[in-house]
């Protein structure tokens, strides 16, 4: 196993970086940051420490994306399913998420919250909202931070919002039904106005989406990594991008 600080590792990383220069990289990269708890268990650390190390990795990961000129990243930090975890774990998670959002904004990135804010505690929503209000991002990288996010919930929210929008115009049920289309639903998603993800990365060895960007990922490429998220390295990202660039994308055909 090559040590991160070894010459061989750095040479391999530089080679991958040079190889990618001849390719068009993803314009929207999604990442499911999975494995914090398992990393903590394997390392003898607490669950909260696993989440903190994983959060720090997110900030580091975004600097790699910036260096590679990837303009849009969606990071799934907290799913609707995660909300059933023990209260003490959730309390720690909320604090870590708030601190991470602040660090991402302090780095100059544009943060866009993605998810159902209503299901989060009021103090969490308020704290993140205040952080965003004080931000002065230079928009060189936009980061969708998916908190309280579920793919099915997003589609339901989009359809509900669309129906209410159509109904407010005085349309009858048949006209409302006629106004529901792929394009009109897309316009009411959390990611409205953004391109769909070209590539979605999931760590920890799990090979499923778990509801991540269900609507938007219909033509996405996937890359699954055995490494737990806190152990994810820049070379892992480069390998994922190289694999993506070598594929022939068929977009469902």
UniProtKB/TrEMBL annotation:
Domain of life: Bacteria
InterPro entries for the chain: UPP_synth-like, UPP_synth-like_CS, UPP_synth-like_sf
Stated family: Belongs to the UPP synthase family. Z-FPP synthase subfamily.
Protein name: Isoprenyl transferase
UniProt entry keywords in alphabetical sequence: Magnesium, Metal-binding, Transferase
Task of the protein: Catalyzes the condensation of isopentenyl diphosphate (IPP) with allylic pyrophosphates generating different type of terpenoids.
Subunit note: Homodimer.
PANTHER family for this protein: DEHYDRODOLICHYL DIPHOSPHATE SYNTHASE COMPLEX SUBUNIT DHDDS (PTHR10291:SF43), DEHYDRODOLICHYL DIPHOSPHATE SYNTHASE FAMILY MEMBER (PTHR10291)
Naturally occurring in which organism (per UniProt): Brachybacterium muris UCD-AY4
Keyword Magnesium listed: yes
Residues reported in the UniProt entry to bind substrate: 35-39, 51, 79-81, 85, 202, 208-210
BP GO terms, sorted: polyprenol biosynthetic process
């Amino acid at each position: 196993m090559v040590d991160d600080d070894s010459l061989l590792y750095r040479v391999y990383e530089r080679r991958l970086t040079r190889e990618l220069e001849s390719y068009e990289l993803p314009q929207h990269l999604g990442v499911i940051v999975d494995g914090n708890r398992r990393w903590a268990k394997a390392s003898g650390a607490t669950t909260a420490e696993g989440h903190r190390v994983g959060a720090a990795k997110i900030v580091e990961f975004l600097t790699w994306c910036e260096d590679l000129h990837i303009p849009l990243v969606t990071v799934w930090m907290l799913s609707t399913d995660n909300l059933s975890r023990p209260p003490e774990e959730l309390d720690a998670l909320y604090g870590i998420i708030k601190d991470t959002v602040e660090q991402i904004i302090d780095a100059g990135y544009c943060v866009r919250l993605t998810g159902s804010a209503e299901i989060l505690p009021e103090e969490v929503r308020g704290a993140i909202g205040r952080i965003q209000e004080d931000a002065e991002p230079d928009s060189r990288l936009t980061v969708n931070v998916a908190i309280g996010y579920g793919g099915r919930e997003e589609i339901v929210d989009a359809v509900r919002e669309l129906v209410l929008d159509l109904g407010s115009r005085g349309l009858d049920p048949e006209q409302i039904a006629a106004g529901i289309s792929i394009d009109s639903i897309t316009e009411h998603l959390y990611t409205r106005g953004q391109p769909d993800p070209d590539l979605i990365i999931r760590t920890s060895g799990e090979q499923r989406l778990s509801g991540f960007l269900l609507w938007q990922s219909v033509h996405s490429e996937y890359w699954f990594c055995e490494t737990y998220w806190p152990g994810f390295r820049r070379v892992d990202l480069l390998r994922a991008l190289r694999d993506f660039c070598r594929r022939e994308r068929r977009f469902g055909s």
